[in-house]
Design brief:
The chain is mainly α. About 65% of the residues lie in helices and about 0% in strands. It has 7 helices and no strands. The protein has helices at about 1-20, 20-25, 25-35, 55-70, 75-85, 100-130, 145-160.
Length: about 160
């Protein structure tokens, strides 16, 4: 008997774990989630959730009504995209040309990291060579007596002007 109860408990838990979170969410939560994931057609550059216009409030109410009627997020998003176009999504899709928006930052970061590694190796190699005395000959800052006289003459002529 205990084995059957355990089996039922594990089965119920598995079904709850696999079920989408939105299926368990309240319609208002589904509507708020969707409103935060789409741009407002009425306030450019703002999500529908943050748009203060009355038209945005009306659209949020429509989304809530659809969620209360049992529509899932996929169906609601499809309806919104059919009415306002695919650009209503605040986040680019992870397919097609929208994939560029997801992949490009990763590629740029990887290239930057690669360049940084190469430069650090180059600089550390230069430092090791300099410590070992294998670097270029140091520049002499001492002047010969003739160079010193010439410099003094030129400075005197410059100050005399």
């Amino acid at each position: 008997m205990r084995g059957k109860a355990l089996l039922v408990a594990v089965t119920c838990w598995s079904l709850l774990a696999v079920a989408p979170a939105t299926a368990l969410a309240a319609p208002e939560d589904v509507a708020n989630d969707i409103a935060g994931r789409i741009t407002s057609p009425f306030c450019p550059g703002v999500t529908l959730h943050d748009c203060p216009s009355q038209a945005a409030a009306d659209l949020r109410n429509r989304i809530t009504t659809w969620a209360e009627a049992g529509w899932g997020p996929t169906r609601i998003m499809a309806r919104l995209e059919s009415e306002y176009g695919p650009e209503i999504g605040a986040v680019p899709p992870a397919s097609g040309t929208g994939l560029i928006a997801w992949v490009l930052p990763v590629v740029v970061l990887a290239c930057g990291a690669g360049i940084a590694v190469v430069l650090m190796r180059h600089w550390s190699a230069d430092t090791r060579r300099a410590r070992a005395g294998e670097g270029p000959e140091p520049i002499s800052l001492s002047l010969s007596p003739s160079e010193r006289r010439r410099l003094d003459d030129e400075l005197a002529a410059f100050k005399g002007r």
